[in-house]
Design brief:
Helix content is 41%, strand content 11%. The protein has 320 residues and is an alpha/beta fold. Strands 1-2-3-7-6 form a 5-stranded parallel β-sheet, with helices on both faces. Strand 4 and strand 5 form a beta hairpin. It is globular and about 55 Å long. It starts with 5 loop residues before the first helix and ends with a helix. The structure holds thiamine diphosphate (TPP).
């Protein structure tokens, strides 16, 4: 695979920005989804329930992998931390996958309103990935099974490529850690290719994860011990991320570093769930939320998305 150009890097970074915006909007907004007027208390959901901290990293991994594998019909993405559902839902919506199972989730303003309003809402989308989510077979609230599920999916399917994102807290579970042994059992030309990613954002809920306390050398030795080749990536270095994905490496195991809650008003231990507790009643918090949302420059981002969706509709004659 060749090197990636500047236009593709910009496209990936724009997609990440868009999906980060969509993640925040789902968590907080019940109105004014494009910030067309000044954000007010009335625009904020009365009950805030969901997880922000892991979302940026999910969006980074999803966008970078999509750039390499989007044309491969046998590519799958398996997500361990299903509590990062706003990010997953954002990506599924943007790629028109959600509307295939839910006709209201169109990629237009009405669909955007639906996505955000119905997130973590009675009779709407749940707060975690669930069997209602396209492509999901298990409830996303229980950590540990992502890698085992990916190996299961690969069995007898040499044509498949399956990327798996595992949280650093998730890798503390016995299930996830022991699933690394499946590499030795299933590494065969008869099975698909697994591309594991450890999402090293440093925290498990509000405390440092065990892997965040280990040195790079200790993590490398652990990973090599299971037969993989460790490759570190700084999540926000898109060029390096793309280089890493395009390198010829035997049994790669990527360690993707991001800052938990990156892009939001607070990081690390305070970013796991809802980083602003009272934007519906506290003027300062509302202002912080408005600045946070504006930092992604949403109107510019959505102009492109809605235009592309309309063009797709027109060109293909498809119902979207
Ligand atoms: C088996 C299991 N144990 C505990 C939990 C509770 N829990 C929810 S999120 C979380 C932290 C996960 O940390 P990590 O995998 O690093 O995800 P991130 O920090 O990126 O949110 C925990 C322990 C769970 N969901 N499943």
């Amino acid at each position: 695979m060749g090197a990636v150009g500047i236009a593709e890097i910009e496209k990936i970074e724009k997609r990440i920005r868009l999906c980060d915006y969509l993640s925040v909007a789902q968590l907080f907004l019940k109105n004014n989804f494009l910030l067309e007027r000044e954000l007010s208390f009335d625009d904020i959901k009365p009950r805030l329930l969901g997880h922000w901290g892991t979302c940026h990293g999910i969006n980074v991994a999803y966008a970078n992998l999509k750039s390499v594998y989007s044309e491969d019909p046998n590519y799958s993405f398996v997500l361990g931390p299903g509590h990062g559902f706003p990010a997953l839902n954002a990506n599924l919506w943007l790629d028109h996958k959600l509307e295939k199972v839910d006709s209201k989730a169109t990629v237009d303003l009405a669909g955007l309103e639906y996505l955000c309003k119905e997130f973590s809402w009675p009779d709407g989308f749940p707060s975690h990935a669930s069997p209602f989510t396209p492509g999901i077979i298990t409830e996303g609230g229980e950590l540990g099974y992502a890698l085992a599920n990916a190996y299961g999916l690969s069995l007898g399917h040499p044509e498949k490529t399956i990327a798996v994102l595992i949280g650093d807290g998730e890798l503390e579970t016995a299930t996830a850690l022991d699933s690394l042994n499946l590499h030795n059992l299933f590494d065969s030309a008869k099975n698909g290719k697994i591309i594991p990613f450890l999402h090293l954002n440093g925290y498990k809920i509000s405390a440092p994860s065990i892997y965040a306390r280990k040195s790079e050398r200790e993590i490398n030795e652990l990973i090599r011990g299971f037969g993989f080749t460790p490759r570190w990536i700084q999540g926000d270095d898109t060029e390096d991320f793309q280089t890493a994905l395009r390198e010829e490496t035997a049994a790669p195991f990527y360690i993707m570093q991001t800052e938990k809650g990156e892009g939001g008003p607070n990081a690390h231990h305070e970013a796991h769930q809802i980083p602003l507790k009272n934007p519906k009643t506290d003027g300062e918090e509302l202002k912080t939320l408005a600045e946070w949302l504006e930092s992604y420059q949403p109107r510019e981002l959505f102009q492109d998305v809605f235009q592309a969706a309309t063009t797709l509709n027109y060109d293909s004659g498809e119902q979207i």
